[in-house]
Design brief:
single chain, 191 residues, alpha+beta, Aminopeptidase, seven-stranded mixed beta sheet, 6 helices, globular
Amino acid sequence: MDTAITGNGTREPIVLDAAEVMSDPDLGARFQESAHRILADLVRGGAALGWVDPPSRDEVAELLDHVTSEAHAGNAALRAAYIGRHLVGLGYWQRYARPTHRPHADVEKIAVDSAAQGRGVGRALTAALVADARRAGIEVLTLDARGDNSNALSLYRSLGFTEYGRLPDFVAVGERRYDKVFCMLDFRSER
């Protein structure tokens, strides 16, 4: 894997799954700390990632440990994007917990370091997560985004997601209110 990350000669993102990251001692050792930095910086800058205040190192470590464990059990996928040997983004989906919803999964986070935005990282991560969902037999992959995140919503539409609902002024950040937009990618017709 070392050559895949350092030897491609480009500044294009390379997307790895959790097992590939952890199999490289150097990447694995730095993954949680790098992920924490990205998530905390984005939240500090106002990104809609589910936190009002930047998450602590322990919160991020607990989240990543949980998602990694679920990925090993086939109930999730975790992807990490690198440019060179630097983590520039991460994303994951998890199956819904209710038995009646188990064939479906929700993309819960896609986070791209602000310095790497506009370089195809979000597209590469999302496309990899979509491919993982297909391979895992997911029937419907869902996600939501804050209504003012037009770049993300445009990206999701370009990858085949369709809007299936919207809650007006649902997300409260201080005095500001934003719509919560629900999107889905239905794989059932492919079967």
